[in-house]
Design a protein that fits this description.
The protein has four helices and four strands; from the N terminus they run H-H-H-E-E-E-E-H. The chain is mostly helical and about 130 residues long. About 15% of the residues are buried.
Length: about 130
């Protein structure tokens, strides 16, 4: 009877050790991905979308207030490029135009704050390197 308990205890210890290794590997993989370029660029895109939604939620009373909002949100969009400078994300600001009936009129249906993935494009279109002659 003591041999069966010993086998059960060994099996539980082996399963626990395997679980610890699996969890450590998963945590390490997530930590590497969270600091990677693609994760940082996704965070920059989310920040740009937040600026866009905040901008669209505003209801200026006149064109002067609309111009002031455009300037303020253009600065917020530019700060995204500074905050996420390691991703080389280049922010572009498309100002909003106040419609005659009130509210924003989207020019060409483009997003307000968009990002260009400069680093991703450079890596994607980098010429193939061959061995030196």
């Amino acid at each position: 009877m003591s041999l069966s308990w010993l086998l059960v205890a060994a099996a539980v210890a082996a399963i626990s050790a395997t679980a610890v290794v699996v969890v450590q590997t998963a945590v390490r993989d997530v930590a590497v991905d969270a600091g990677s370029y693609s994760a940082r660029f996704r965070a920059a895109v989310i920040a740009a979308d937040t600026v866009t939604r905040d901008w669209r939620a505003r209801a200026p009373a006149d064109r002067f207030e609309a111009d002031a909002l455009n300037r303020r949100y253009a600065e917020r969009c530019a700060r995204i490029g500074i905050t996420f400078a390691d991703t080389e994300a280049r922010p572009f600001w498309k100002p909003g135009v106040l419609a005659d009936g009130g509210g924003w009129f989207e020019v060409h249906k483009l997003p307000v704050c968009s990002l260009q993935d400069v680093r991703g494009e450079r890596e994607r279109f980098r010429p193939f390197r061959t061995a030196p002659p």
